[in-house]
Amino acid sequence: xxxxxEDIIKLTNWIIIAILIISSYSQLSAGxxxxxxxxxxxxNNDYQEPNNTFxxxxxxxxxxxxxxINGFDDPNDYYRIELIENKQYTFTLSFLGRSDLDLYLYSxxxxxxxxxxxxxxxxxxxxxxxxxxxxxxxxxxxxATEGIQNYTLTTGYIxxxxxxxxxxxxxxxxxxxxxxxxxxxxxxxPAPNPCNNSDCREANNSFSEAQPINPxxxxxxxxxxxxxxNDYYRIxxxxxxxxxxxxxxxxNADLDLYIYGSDKSEIIKSKNIGPVPEEVILHTSKDDVxxxxxxxxxxxxxxxxxxxxxx
Length: 311
Known about the structure:
Layout: H1 2-41, E1 58-59, E2 64-70, E3 76-83, E4 89-95, E5 100-106, E6 112-116, E7 123-128, E8 134-144, E9 148-155, E10 171-172, E11 175-176, E12 211-212, E13 219-224, E14 230-237, E15 242-248, E16 254-260, E17 266-270, E18 278-283, E19 288-298, E20 302-310
Parallel strand pairs: 1-3, 12-14
Antiparallel strand pairs: 2-9, 3-8, 4-7, 4-9, 5-6, 5-8, 10-11, 13-20, 14-19, 15-18, 15-20, 16-17, 16-19
């Protein structure tokens, strides 16, 4: 009887120890998962930053990625992707809230070949079948946001053959799941002048069609008094800074320069008479999106120009 009692006590002790071990393991697992979730979903979802220019373009190498954008200090997210000729691709940009994001597709020479600019929509979509294989570029642009705006970018077909042999998808629903925020270096197809001296940003004839540009970026484009009177651009500028906006051109044309606030009200303009370059000094009082308008007062056919907003 005494031996049976001892055996029962030992068995009870083992059961208690097992329960304590299982409980401790569950708590550790929950804490670890919570820590991982915090690391990879709070502040680390946009792991391809900075990707604010063609040269910094991230890699669109997964069927779906999630990232974020900000109309004030992060208005553009560029991605590069290898497309195969005669394959059908569908690029879909989805987001929630009251923001307005736009979607653009550029050729290997960085000329705009397609766009989706649905005003106030929560989805933008581009369908494209390339006639030539190469490195193409996708741009997600913030037309208007309230702070940081998360988005999802998907593509219907991914060419993985160009990736390194040891490459593994580093994104699961947009978060880093392997070596955080380190990506293989892939050299894109060399590209000439972004616009190749042509107006690759058309159509940008109204505020709603305004094309995104960056500070210190030289924009080469053209206007025509008859068929292309106005070129609108939008740019995110920082508060309490002095910007010089220059419009240079040659020939006998007469072009004018206007600057507008985010509410589309005129701030400043330069309207020199005749073939004289235009220049304005803009002092910003807040972080905001501004609009730049190049207007053709008089041209003899198509008139090329160079526009730059210098910090």
